[in-house]
Amino acid sequence: MFRIGIDLGGTNIAAGVVDEENKIVGKASIPTGLPKPAEGIADSIKEAALLACENAGIDIFDVAYVGVGTPGAVNADGVVENDANLGFVNTPIRDLVAERIKKPVFVANDANCAALGEQVAGAGKGTENFIAVTLGTGVGGGIVIGGKLLTGVNGAAGEIGHMCIEKDGRLCNCGNNGCFETYASATALVNDAKEAGLPVTCAYDVFKLRDAGNIIAASIIKNYISYLAVGITNLIDIFQPDMICVGGGVAAQGDNLINPLYDIVVKKRYTKFSKKQTKICAAILGNDAGIIGAANLGE
Ligand SMILES: [Zn+2]
User: Fold this and answer.
1) Do 169 and 225 have their domain in common?
2) The pLDDT of residue 266
3) From the CA of 38, how far away is ligand 1's center (Å)?
4) β-bridge pairing 243-247 and 130-135
5) Which domain holds residue 135?
6) pLDDT along the chain (299 residues), means of 10
7) Eight-state DSSP code of residue 11
8) How far is the CA of 60 from the centre of ligand 1 (A)?
9) How far is the CA of 177 from the centre of ligand 1 (A)?
10) Could you tell me if residue 167 is inside a domain?
11) Distance 137 CA to ligand 1 centre (A)
C-alpha cells in the first residue's frame, strides 16, 4: 500500500505519496497561507495530499495512512502543545486531519520525521540506531533507537541543538546559555565569520574563502568543527548509534566537513570503544527526508 507523508512548514505544505520501497512516486506543495486557524491548515493538508495522489496517478483509496511532520512537540494523542509560528496551542492536529482525510493519521515533530526518513531510506538505510543532526538556522535532529523514533515524555526528544556544551556560553533563543546550536549551526558559523570582518552571507561563503587560502576563514572553520565535534561526541557517548548523519546547508560541504569532523571525534576524542565505531556520514535525502519519515510513522 501507498502512504502519504506531509511536511508541514510555516511557508509551504509539502506532500508526497510513498511506495513500499520508500520511493516518492508523486509530490505536491502548496502555500501554508498563514495566518489561518488550525482547521484551515488541516484543510490545506488534505488539499496537498489529494494533489500528491493526483500527481502520483493513484486514488486516495490506495493509501494506507497519512503521516504528518509538524513543528513543535507532539504528544501521544497527536496534539501539538505549542508552536508560535503556526499558531498551534494544544492543537489536535491528528484528529483535525483524520476528520478530513478519513484515513488513520500519525503525527510527529518535523525534525524527528526527517531523521526517520534518512534512517529508513537515506544514509542510514540498514541501521537500527541512528541519529540525524541538521545544521541550519539552528541545529535540529532526531534519534532513532531500534528502528523507532525516540519521542520522549512530551514528544520533544531529540532537541540536539539545545544540548549545553558551554555552561556560561553564548545566549540561545531558548533562553539558556551555551546550547550546541549557538556554536554549531550555520548561523553561528556565518556570525563568527562576519564578526571577524569576512564578507560572507552563508556558510558556503566561509568554506569558499577558506579554500581560497583565507587564514581567518580557516581558523573560524577549525573552531566551528571543534564545537561540532563536542556535540557529536556527546551523542556517541550516550547512544552508541550505528551512524550519525549530518545534514543541512553546511553538510553540503560533504567530505570537506565530514573528514575533519571524523578526525576529531574518532581519532582524537573518541577512542574508548575502538572495535566498532559509529559512522559519521552526510545526509543524502535533503527535503525528501521529512516526507519519507512522516510516511513511515505508522510502521
Ligand atoms: Zn537553546
Assistant:
1) yes
2) 78
3) 27
4) parallel
5) 125-282
6) 96 97 98 96 98 97 97 93 92 98 96 96 97 93 95 89 96 95 96 98 96 98 96 92 93 91 79 72 94 97
7) S
8) 40
9) 7
10) yes
11) 12
